[in-house]
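Per your request, structure below.
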């Protein structure tokens, strides 16, 4: 298989579902939203329990793999010819054979939306979703009056084109009125890649285990591998199998979505869009780095040793070097302060860069966030005040100094204050402090100075 070393960037952006993915359900759901630039996007959601009548797969030549999973072949009813054809095309492009029957259901758009919503509601973790919303509000990554759960629901309502469910091993796609248009073909190619790689590498079970354990940073990284893989396959499929007219439509992003798509995107905070794009844009770059000189065989090896952080996705050379990380010890500040703990997890390099870039230039933000070796945060509610502490472990003292300096430049904009004095800052936007010690950086934020002081004292 060719390595496509000079392959151009993908023709359209795709995005995964709401983060935390612990609050989302259906894997591989493609959603098209028209952005101001006229480009389309797609969305992936985590595992659902939805079931439907299975259909027959298309066999092709296989490549050896380390997977030992097997599935009993079932006698299935016939499927539409175009699905069988696209299955074979995807398998040929990906270099993997279908190991088991795959259920593909073509349903009405209303039924697709119903199944999608049922799956997301069934597998939702509302406490995590609420906690993430509280953390993002403290960080000023979303407005404080945002109904986070509703924003997420509104963004995806009515936009789903199809999804793959790794628990039931079913793919559901919307009926395009009997017309097999470019949107249907691309949707199927993207989702069939998910189904095919799940058969070979069982990513559904692995990502579910990460989700159940609330290992969000690792889940974000694994999702980036999964979506980058599907994006690369999708681009190659479009290049080889779409007609000239369909290629043009694909390039311009006109592959679906309802009339309110652009308005929904416009209402979504920029951070959430950036976070949703991440597995598709950065994941694609990461996957391309794995194909150099090896094609999709390099991607197959990545499934066998998945990336474990957004740092590894952003810096494939660190993935190649197997540079790991671990969350530093973080005191539970809830009991000593009497505050209610809303969320404990990890920010990771990507989110820290997003946080810094909200107030300072992006190259400086990304440079300061690099050098991450693990972090842990706790978001709390202290009466009417919100607060958050994050303990960041850097690779070196120089990296910690760089991050602390960037946070000092970021803090006046976040707090709406004039300056940072002795690592402290207070303004109409909030109060906090930055403390650097060796390779560690502590960030304390709160709605008011009294709460910030309480949290800092508890953190030690």
């Amino acid at each position: 298989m060719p390595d496509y070393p000079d392959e151009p960037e993908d023709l359209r952006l795709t995005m995964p579902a709401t983060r935390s993915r612990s609050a989302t359900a259906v894997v591989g759901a493609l959603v098209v939203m028209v952005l101001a630039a006229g480009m389309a996007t797609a969305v992936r959601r985590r595992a659902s329990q939805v079931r439907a009548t299975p259909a027959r797969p298309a066999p092709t030549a296989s490549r050896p793999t380390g997977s030992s999973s097997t599935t009993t072949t079932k006698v299935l009813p016939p499927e539409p010819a175009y699905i069988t054809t696209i299955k074979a095309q995807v398998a040929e492009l990906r270099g993997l054979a279908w190991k088991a029957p795959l259920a593909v259901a073509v349903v009405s758009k209303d039924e697709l939306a119903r199944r999608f919503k049922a799956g997301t509601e069934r597998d939702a973790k509302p406490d995590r979703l609420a906690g993430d919303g509280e953390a993002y509000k403290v960080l000023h990554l979303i407005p404080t009056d945002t109904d986070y759960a509703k924003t997420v629901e509104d963004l995806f309502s009515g936009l789903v084109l199809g999804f793959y469910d790794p628990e039931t091993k079913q793919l559901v796609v919307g009926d395009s009125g009997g017309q097999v248009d470019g949107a249907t073909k691309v949707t199927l190619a993207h989702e069939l890649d998910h189904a095919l790689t799940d058969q070979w590498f069982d990513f559904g079970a692995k990502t579910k285990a990460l989700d159940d354990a609330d290992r969000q940073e690792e889940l974000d990284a694994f999702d980036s591998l999964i979506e980058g893989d599907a994006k690369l396959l999708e681009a190659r499929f479009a290049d080889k199998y779409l007609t000239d007219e369909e290629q043009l439509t694909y390039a311009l992003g006109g592959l679906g979505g309802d009339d309110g798509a652009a308005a929904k995107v416009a209402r979504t905070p920029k951070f959430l869009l950036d976070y949703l794009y991440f597995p598709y844009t950065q994941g694609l770059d990461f996957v391309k780095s794995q194909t150099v000189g090896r094609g999709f065989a390099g991607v197959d090896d990545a499934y066998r040793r998945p990336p474990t952080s957004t740092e590894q996705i952003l810096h494939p050379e660190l993935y190649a070097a197997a540079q790991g990380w671990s969350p530093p010890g973080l005191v539970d500040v809830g009991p000593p302060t009497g505050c209610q703990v809303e969320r404990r997890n990890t920010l990771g390099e990507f989110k820290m860069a997003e946080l810094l870039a909200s107030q300072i230039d992006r190259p400086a933000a990304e440079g300061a966030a690099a050098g991450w070796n693990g972090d842990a945060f706790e978001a709390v509610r202290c009466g009417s005040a919100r607060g958050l502490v994050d303990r960041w472990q850097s690779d070196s003292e120089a990296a910690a100094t760089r991050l602390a300096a960037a946070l000092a430049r970021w803090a006046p904009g976040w707090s709406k204050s004039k300056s940072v004095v002795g690592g402290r800052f207070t303004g109409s936007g909030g109060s906090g402090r930055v403390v650097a010690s060796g390779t560690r950086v502590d960030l304390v934020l709160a709605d008011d100075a009294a709460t910030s002081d309480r949290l800092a004292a508890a953190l030690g």
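The CA atoms of residues 215 and 276 lie 17 Å apart.

Regards,
D.
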